[in-house]
UniProtKB/TrEMBL annotation:
The keyword Lyase applies. It comes from Achromobacter aloeverae. The lineage of its organism: Bacteria, Pseudomonadati, Pseudomonadota, Betaproteobacteria, Burkholderiales. This is Mandelate racemase. The keyword Lyase applies. It comes from the Bacteria.
Amino acid sequence: MTIERIECHVFRAPIAKPVQAAVGHFGNRPAVFLRVWASDGAWGWGEVFCNFPPVGAEHRGRLARDVVAPMAVGAPSDDPASTWRLLTARVRRMAIQCGEPGPMAQVVAAIDQALWDMRARRAGLPLWRVLAAAAGPTGMTADGRIRLYASGIGPDDVAQTALAKQAEGYTAFKFKVGFDPARDLANFRDIRDALGPEARIMVDANQAWEPGVAAERLRALESFRPYWVEEPVAADESLADWQALGRGTPLALAAGENIRGQADFEAAIDNGHLRFVQPDVGKWGGISGCMAVARYAQLAGLTFCPHWLGGGIGLAASMHLRAAMGPAGMVEVDANPNPLRESLWTLPAVADEEGWIRLPDAAGIGVDVELPALEAYRVAF
């Protein structure tokens, strides 16, 4: 059974209010969805990261359609990890030549997601069960449950947004920092006052600070007791700078969405500065690569919390991957409106007061994309 063809669908959904982060903002919600078809008629869905830059969705759509898809046709469809390694090798030199290893890896990551979805659909099982079996001892405690947290909050109306998500059953919350220092602290004061002293609150700086400045910013945050501080400095700062930052603060550091490659993940984990590891299934590795990172992190005593801030396909894949590794960590769910998430599927209701949900028993990722419902958002590429 081999890959026969790959459909590529590019969408942009309008939103009333831009999504803001210290690294930039976007005024609509883009998505690149790939459907991979196999020679036996089986199929599966994957999603390519495309939030940045503003032209990222159309460009990645062209890369998928015109560059990577022809390389994938004829590759095995029933062994996702082997095909991920094969495609990674096939795109390597072109990625170097055009200076785009990130976008190339993102397209390959989506194909990998689709092949895992396909594998689970063939088996008639939810993806988390298939992944738990592949994960070995790590997956023995998997029971289909995951804990959610609301992310992407701020920098405006942080307390109001957090309270609204709390009313929906969320028990953990992440808001944006990396703006004016006074604004960051005022926002933390507001959200802490609103949610209470024991609420689990994380912050995400989106690589905003230089290492020296980051140390000062972390000291200012200590009294608010964030559960973690995400990407306080650029992902490619030296391991020595990351290590010094981690040793100089009692706060837990988190990162991973902008690390690419197993070797770089292992170096970061071994460096000792992280307590939470956050690979992104749409940015690098797909499910195959991110599961290997998750195993390595968990063996090192770190907590795996997959990163995701896109459409509904990548979110579902992230949830199944986290569930397959056992009931630990958390999965982020963007608090901002996104029709390309909301139109695809409805999250299961929060099952208990600690914010856990149980994934449905539908085959694959549990998402069947109704393309006619998305036609209003389709863009040419």
